[in-house]
Amino acid sequence: MPRTAYVNGRYVPHARAAVHVEDRGYQFADGVYEVCEVARGHIVDMTRHLDRLARSLGELSIAWPVSRAALVTIMREVVRRNRVEDGLVYLQVTRGVASRDHVFPVKPTRPALVITAKRSDPAAAASRAENGVKVITVPENRWERVDIKTIGLLPNVLARQKAKEAGAAEAWFVDDDGTVKEGAATNAWIVTRDGVLVTRPADRGILRGITRATAFDVAAKLGYHVEERGFTVEEAQAAREAFITAATTVIMPVVDIDGKPVANGHPGEVATSLRRAFFDVAEKTPA
Ligand code: PDD
User: Fold this and answer.
1) Is 136:171 a contact under the CB 8 Å cutoff?
2) In the chain, what is the straight-line distance between the N-terminal and C-terminal CA atoms, in Å?
3) Does the pTM exceed 0.70?
4) Domain range spanning residue 262?
5) How far away, in angstroms, is 186 Cα from ligand 1 center?
């Protein structure tokens, strides 16, 4: 089935979906994005994703391309037109098209909006979760405003590529003080020997993940205690469990960090139970 994308007011064949060469997203990464999980025909945690989009746009003084209500309608329509039952919906807003100049255009541009959706195979994801994934660590080399979900992702791209070349699924950025920040496209968690869930505070230095936020809700429902603090690579390697969270992976057990197995090298009970309960707890918007 041919895919359909939404580009600046029009639904177009995915293969021909295009933006102008002087779109500031293309030239300066001057834009923001969101990725929402689609599960069993529902967009997951839409409200939280759009709240974060509002914050990202505000931080960069980019206007909403359409109203929030219209955005919801378009996202649902793109998911429907692509017949995505399980997969992802991606949305990107850039400052728009203007003659290349670093400063914001004097004459305000219309922000550009692109929305795409793609299917994924839930069985393949379940099998990855049953085996767990490996991560490597890399030195933090990103700017300080990673709390804004911008499309400027080159350090993340390079880190992920390095992970892939090492046979791993994710790379964790590590701060100068030896603590883990987050993954190239996921948040990082461990479970201590006493069964406490630990993840870095999201007030600065990492993206405040939506899956992370909902994982707090799931943890509360299952009666797990969560502590927001930094942890080192060594602590993670010696932990009872480790896992990552993102809209693309939901909750994914980590079984190996820099070549050292976590616990017995198999997914643990906490990550597995969080993953199992996630969909029930998350907000679900029918597509
Ligand atoms: N990435 N940290 C970073 C740097 C991320 O890029 C992401 C998401 C997360 C997790 O956030 P959330 O739970 O809201 O998905 C944390 C998306 C999925 C991506 O770039 O594909």
Assistant:
1) yes
2) 18
3) yes
4) 125-286
5) 5
